[in-house]
UniProtKB/TrEMBL annotation:
Record-given protein name: SDR family oxidoreductase
InterPro entries found in the cross-reference section: NAD(P)-bd_dom_sf (IPR036291), Sc_DH/Rdtase_CS (IPR020904), SDR_fam (IPR002347), Sec_Metab_Biosynth_SDR (IPR052178)
Organism expressing this protein natively: Parahaliea maris
DNA-binding in keyword set: no
GO molecular function, one term: oxidoreductase activity
Amino acid sequence: MQELFDVQGRVVVVTGGSRGIGAMIAQGFLESGARVYITARKAEELQETRERLSAFGECVAIVSDLSTLAGVEAFAADLAERESGLDILVNNAGATWGAPVESFPEAGWDKTMNLNVKAPFFLTQRLLPLLRAAAGTGRRSRVINIGSVNGLAIDREMQNFAYSASKAAIHHLTRHLALELAESGINVNAIAPGLFPSQMTAYMLESGEDLGAHFPIHRVGNMEDAAGTAIFLSSRASEWMTGQVLALDGGALLQA
């Protein structure tokens, strides 16, 4: 039954792959024998991650700014020059912004929506030829959108209005794309993570409080959790599954 979760030899793209959940997922695919492209905006950080992850397999770094359509098109063109097909696209790159409702700025709203919703849609669109080409080999291609538990339930202590709205949007976009692309041999699913170590959550974890102790499963998420779920959604084990949003949160939503 081990072959049900085999992703060896697959070509994978992980956006926002230089840190946090993106780097965790990239490492998991590399350890499982996939060839992984990671992309992010900051060149130095991206190259440092590539060097670290290359210990686990073939990792290629491409610097790109996916918050603009020009950046999306440039990345898609670069990848098309390197690969004839793409098996797995993980739309992980994201942004957040916090401010009181009375003073929440348009710039914060636009930045969050552009990277969290617009970029995944247009990157998937521009990479459809490669995704369809890979699906033509007999294995369904996969798109995995990284949402959030904040797109499933409201945390009144967090004034991240654009972020929660954007994650609810990416969950619904996942369902829409899943229906649209099923005939093309492409499965589209989403992961809605809870609390994982990342730059976005550093301020929470640095408080010294054991935040994981509040969850039904008493810890925060780790690399195996993120990578294992992504590999499941990319493998034969989930071939008959599309349009789903999987909460990966240690049971936190049960208490919402």
